[in-house]
Amino acid sequence: MWRAALTTGQPYELECRIRSADGSYRWTVSRATALRDEDNRIVRWYGTLTDIEDRRRAEETLRQAQADLAHITRVTTMGELTASLAHELNQPLTAVVTSGGSSLRWLAHEPPRLDKAADAVRRMIRDASRASEVIAHTRALLKKSSEEKAPFDITEVIRDVLILVQSAMARHGIRQHGSLPRVSPSCWGTGSSFSRWF
Fold it and tell me: Quick one: pLDDT at residue 60?
């Protein structure tokens, strides 16, 4: 950069590490500008060397703290999502087990109550489908896609999130007010823009 400045006469600024006499390295900012005469010829160069080692260390500490905070936020979010998913899946799965037990009891009845057993099986199918929907919604939210931007339905995303957090909302006494629009506003994004939150 210095050689280029000598050739062009343009001022320059550069952050670089310099080795001192004791062998230690420190970050510095090197700046230089040319003094010209009336004919625009370079007479001399003026330069400064500013020690920024402490600033660089502070910036690195800040970057590390921000990375640690982002990691903690992701872990906390995953913990909350896992708890919400466990709750959402436990309800239909418990219902499936209960209905399965009822179905066996109706079949063991003398005479077998096929109508009651069929009702219990239908409930099992309904509850298993509900559990499957929870899993499908979660996979859709966390699915990574290409970085290519594409239109998406923000209303559908909000509905998916509400399904995942409804039990947590109930636990904390949070109620949803208002309703989602029938026609979704036009939105563009990437699949990974959603997955990065998790």
Answer: 92
- Residues near 198 by Cβ (< 8 Å), separated by ≥ 6? 74, 77, 78, 81, 141, 142
Phi, psi of 188 (to 5 degrees): -125, 145
Q: Domain with 6 in it: what CATH number? A: 2.10.70.100
Tracing tokens 């004919």 back to the chain, one arrives at 39
In a domain, 92, yes or no: yes
In this structure, is the dihedral angle defined by the CA atoms of residues 140, 141, 142 and 143, taken in order, positive or negative?
positive
Exposure on the CB side of residue 133, measured as CA atoms within 13 A: 14
For residue range 65-114, what is the model confidence (pLDDT) as tens digits? 999 998 888 888 777 778 777 877 888 888 889 889 989 999 998 999 99
In a domain, 198, yes or no: no
